[in-house]
Amino acid sequence: MARGGFPGMGGMNMNNLVKQAQKMQKQMAAMQEELNEKTLEMTSGGGAVKVVISGKKEIKELKINPDVVDPDDVEMLEDLILSAVNEAIRQADEMYNNAMGKLTGGMGMGGMF
């Protein structure tokens, strides 16, 4: 084995590999910060409930149309809120995964950085 190289790595030395990993880590950190600043808006019930969520998955705003507030049907309102919140979280995850996938070239990094 050549000094600083690994068999089957095509002569790539450890220093280059570490530099590439550090560069990718910095890019991922910058991307995460950018994504954390973005917001997504989801609605349910034809706009009866609106949720604004950050890239950090923090609920920033929740609006409920007063017309859907029925004291005799609280369950429907609960379902509308859950639907909007869950869709917002799903969209935030998708936004994050798409951005990181572009950065890593589709490699599953699974919390590596």
From TrEMBL:
<dbReference type="GO" id="GO:0005829">
    <property type="term" value="C:cytosol"/>
</dbReference>
<dbReference type="GO" id="GO:0043590">
    <property type="term" value="C:bacterial nucleoid"/>
</dbReference>
<comment type="function">
    <text>Binds to DNA and alters its conformation. May be involved in regulation of gene expression, nucleoid organization and DNA protection.</text>
</comment>
<protein>
    <recommendedName>
        <fullName>Nucleoid-associated protein B5G26_00885</fullName>
    </recommendedName>
</protein>
<keyword id="KW-0238">DNA-binding</keyword>
<feature type="coiled-coil region">
    <location>
        <begin position="14"/>
        <end position="41"/>
    </location>
</feature>
<dbReference type="GO" id="GO:0003677">
    <property type="term" value="F:DNA binding"/>
</dbReference>
<keyword id="KW-0963">Cytoplasm</keyword>
<comment type="similarity">
    <text>Belongs to the YbaB/EbfC family.</text>
</comment>
<dbReference type="InterPro" id="IPR036894">
    <property type="entry name" value="YbaB-like_sf"/>
</dbReference>
<dbReference type="InterPro" id="IPR004401">
    <property type="entry name" value="YbaB/EbfC"/>
</dbReference>
<keyword id="KW-0175">Coiled coil</keyword>
<comment type="subunit">
    <text>Homodimer.</text>
</comment>
<dbReference type="Pfam" id="PF02575">
    <property type="entry name" value="YbaB_DNA_bd"/>
</dbReference>
